[in-house]
Design brief:
Helix content: 25-40%
Structural class: alpha+beta
Distance between the termini: 74 Å
Strand order of the largest sheet: 3-2-1-5
């Protein structure tokens, strides 16, 4: 007479759960280590979007539109809305930052080409340039 064993043992379940726990722990560690990089990327893209929107608003409304930078507060004002930078991101303190950029109704900016530097806690940086014609580029 033969007995059929169907199912799994408690030991097999424990081993499988241990493997899942180890893999999950590694994934969470990697995810949190990437937070400063991810926040820098997202913040720079948001700022670029706000700069381009300010230029479009100046052209559409036919009047100057300003973006003010508040480096000591890690924030900037764009289109009447205050935007705070996340914890791991700041304006690069080693680079001089003008107080604002003014887009004119023709889409150009009043001061010459401007560059904004964002930096994260891991010393990674992003350079955002607004040239005199109002074109916004990110490096």
């Amino acid at each position: 007479m033969t007995h059929s064993k169907s199912g799994i043992t408690l030991i097999e379940i424990c081993v499988a759960l241990a493997i899942v726990a180890i893999i999950s722990g590694l994934a969470v560690t990697d995810f949190t280590a990437q937070a400063p990089h991810r926040q820098l990327r997202e913040s720079s893209r948001h700022l670029v979007g706000q700069l381009r929107l300010a230029r479009q608003r100046a052209i559409a409304d036919g009047k100057d539109t300003t973006i003010d930078f508040l480096p000591e507060e890690m924030a900037y004002n764009a289109l009447g809305i205050r935007n705070n930078l996340p914890n791991h991101v700041a304006f690069d303190p080693t680079k001089q930052l003008e107080r604002g950029i003014i887009f004119q109704p023709n889409g150009t900016i009043k001061p010459p080409t401007r560059t904004i530097f964002l930096k994260n806690s891991r010393d990674e940086s992003v350079e955002i340039t607004v040239n005199v014609t109002g074109r916004v580029k990110i490096k």
